[in-house]
Amino acid sequence: MPEGYDVLLRDGGIAHVRPLRPTDRGALHELIDRSSEHSAYLRFFTGGRKTAHAYMDRITSDEYGGHALVATIRGQLIGVAEYVPGRDGSADLAILIDDAVHGHGLGTLLLEHVALDAGAHGVRELVADVLGENRPMLRVLHGLGLEMTQRFEEGMLHVVIAAEPTHRLHEGIAARDHEAGRASLRRVLAPRSVAVIGAGRNERAIGHKVLRNLIDGGFRGPIHPVNPNATEVAGLACHAKVPDGVDLAVVAVPARHVLEVARDCADAGVAGLVVVTSGFAETGQRDGESDLLKICRAAGMRLIGPNCLGVVNTAARLNASFLPHRPVRGRVALMSQSGAVGAALLERLDVSSFVSVGNKADVSGNDLLEYWEDDPGTDVIALYLESFGNPRRFARIARRVGARKPILLVKSGRGGAGDRAVRSHTAAAATPDVAVDALTRAAGVIRLDSVHELIDTAKLLAAQPLPRGRRVAIVGNSGGPQAMAADACERHGLVVPELPPRLLEARAAAALGNPVDLTADATAPEIGAAVKAVAEAPDVDVVLVVYTPPFGDGLDATRQAIAEAAKCTDKAVLACVIGHGGLIDGRVPSYAFPEQAVAALAHAVRYAEWRRRPLEPAPAPMSVDVVTAREIVQAELAKRPDGCWLSPAVTARLLRCYSIPFAETVDVHSPETAVRAAVHVGLPCVLKAVGPVHKSDVGGVLLNLRSHDEVRQAYRAMSARIGSEMTGAVVQRMLPAGVEIIVGGVNYLAFGPLVMVGMGGVTADLLADRAFRVPPVTDATDMIGELRCAPLLRGYRGSPPMNIQSLADQVTRIGRLLEDLPQVAELDLNPVIVSPDGATTVDARIRVAPCEPPPSPLLRRLR
């Protein structure tokens, strides 16, 4: 079990969970003494407290053979859960929770963690005897989401719980995590009262600015300035210390005083801290930031920052920030890791709420997604990130939230300055930024390249319904800008269809196709009528109005006509008013240039298509030998603890564990052994050097050797040419011609596994024709279809179609291998020869490296 971690409870409180220690004996006896007689009876039956105390002595003794977890709140031990393995694959299960925290979800959480740990240690079943009248415990056991059977024996229920995780367990854990996460932020983002610690009379000081923003914003609850050196600030009475029961405290004192202030807030029962003070991890002071987080976690406080601008909730009229301007209420929830970017965005976006997370010591984008998912004032979520804390958790949450609300992401650091100390094709191509792209794509997140794009796309998604499809009608008064819009649609994969004849009444100078050019003298009513008419066409999904002022009836009248026309349709309508951006009548997003409008629309269209897609099928069961595969990897790392490239023979054994077709390969070390191998595999054959990764670059691959003498001479020539880098060679049978494909993967410490498929052979790097996915890969056929070389596989210019399904199966299996074996750092199957009969790997390279197994995604805990 992990050494210890913090967890969120159902009410938003924080507990600390860790393995039981022998030194916990006294605290466990105190737990029994605090328990009611009824609780002791339900847990220990007729033995009551006496049996309970003996139980605590047993589980803290040196002879104890079980696994136990304890939970503490504010340093007090308030729960214990254990399992004791037997010899038949089962384990006895037991739990005791302090009466004071019943109903907070702690029992369920401890049982989740115990069950997951038991399953990881080979336990198949957890068994417990429960009194029939102990309905709360039975509800907890039933609600876990694990398969459970029970039988009634002499007033007792004998319960058997399968330790194998189920889909219902996954769903239950996600729902409980969501409930706890939202509860933990409720008093932070919608507080009943706010204290500003460090508020003074200096109007240029940050503390005063925060206080002034709270007052001027009209916050409805009590506002408490805290300053021991003043009696009154901004007309409000000052406190020497934060009052008891305050929900939110904004800390704006020098960094050297922040820890002391945090302890005062903990003593006062504050629910959350927003630390705007800088001078922590961003300046190298990581210990101070770590100590601050420990104080907050021990007290059950959530922490935003440090080094942040503050928080805003326009619905609650909360402006607990030192922003220079007042945020405007809207439907976009915004999180920014950069204060400067956040401030710039708030000048251009109307928001429901804004959180500047600063150093992200605690509250992160993952937490905020949980909160905003159910926020009735939020329709769109926008994130500016500089780093991911837990990208795999982000993907899981974002996939669920994105099915209800669009998530927009700008992440800095797209450059290729990452670690290039890799030697496989896949690892060189699968940069961390490619991993971010694959992760966000799988989760339905709209990843954008710039803050400007984020603003443009957020405006559209917050104001208009999702596009029903890709068909765009372009209406306007100027042919040039409309043609630019049509060209942009084509570049982004949108369709500008022919419109039905006689859709509009004829105008002498109008081009009534699509784009619909009404000419420069078109009046505002005529433009409005045209918008209504094309919106009614069944072959139109979106209407884009392109207007060049000041022609016709002028800017104001035309804008009003566009707004009125948009009210008459439930299809998406957006406008390009040349040189003018913003919102028309608070409803129709307007852009200064056609390319802006179309780029935003394209993002919205792709997101809408993602929303409409069928639910991803569960990964199909496959026959794999995970146990043997792990043994192979562990044995290789035992010999080379720093990691190594696997030999061809070991590589072949590992791939066989996942039923990946691999050409028969024989290791050879001399001209004569090469000849004997050729006799075994048959002629014609292939000779390949072992040693260099890109063998073709150094003449390390010789094909179509048709005689034994050719094999012998080929080995001698290859050895002389490559020299000491050649550590041996392999011989394979020459396969029939087919399409050469590369299948590969990498494992990142933070992001986890990433799978690649692309054009293979010597063109793998030259053409850079690749597609990526985050496992499990459930759409391998679609992934292959994204490749530019896909027509070669379907049958190109008279060639027969290749067995795409066999290739897709390989891609899926490689994804499973990377998930099962995080120690596989790099993997290349190149080439995989895809023919009408199947897909066979003829060359493979696998590098393993030491790696701690990632924590189970089912293990609920704060990072």
Structure, explained:
There is one protein chain. The radius of gyration is 32 Å and the shape is globular. It contains 27 helices and 40 strands. With 863 residues, it is α/β, with parallel strands linked by helices. Helix content is 37%, strand content 24%. Residues 417-422 have low confidence and may be disordered. Helix 12 runs parallel beside helix 14. The two termini are 16 Å apart. The protein folds into 5 domains: 5-165, Aminopeptidase, CATH 3.40.630.30; 184-460, Rossmann fold, CATH 3.40.50; 465-612, Rossmann fold, CATH 3.40.50; 627-662 and 737-863, D-amino Acid Aminotransferase, Chain A, domain 1; 664-734, Dna Ligase, domain 1, CATH 3.30.1490.20. The strands form 7 sheets. The chain has an 8-stranded mixed beta sheet with strand order 1-2-3-4-5-6-8-7, sandwiched between helices. A 7-stranded mixed beta sheet has the order 17-16-19-18-20-21-22, sandwiched between helices. Strands 24-25-23-26-27-29-28 form a 7-stranded mixed beta sheet, with helices on both faces.
